[in-house]
Amino acid sequence: MSDIICTSSNAVQIVRQIPEEQPIIFAPDRNLGRYVMAQTGRDLVLWQGSCIVHETFSEKKMVQLQIQHPEAEVIAHPECEPAVLRHANYVGSTTALLKYCQRSTSQSFIIATEPGIIHQMQKQAPNKVFIPAPPTNNCNCNECPYMRLNTLEKLYLAMKDRMPGNCTA
Length: 169
Fold this sequence. Notes:
Layout: H1 11-17, E1 25-26, H2 30-40, E2 45-46, H3 59-68, E3 73-76, H4 82-85, E4 90-91, H5 94-103, E5 108-112, H6 117-124, E6 129-132, H7 152-162
Parallel strand pairs: 1-2, 3-4, 3-5, 5-6
Helix pairs in contact: 1-2, 5-6
């Protein structure tokens, strides 16, 4: 049903390529859509969906964490709510966050995105400290229960069963 499918890493560039007079319905994430609007100056119609992980981050708890770790840079995924993004030193896609940690001279980071990326950050920059952003609740359950349900086999079957003809993917 989509004309264009993009990710957080290329959403801004894609929207910039669409003629100004062309209306855009941006889905499925309203927070990413707000970020794209701020970066492009475009007026988008935002689908009111969002990522449950990125909506659980607590601005209040993040500010408290910044006070405890004043040397730490806050880096955030653009799917976070605007209140969280206001505190970010850097906003980027998952890959961009990983690369930023590698090249930054900072030695510690507060990470406002799905915490599964922290393992990769630690592998790429083992001498740096990575602190997960705190959720609004009292558990450490800001891991996405759905993302890990995706597999290559499920992608293959979805493509095979929905595409006309034979899919060789």
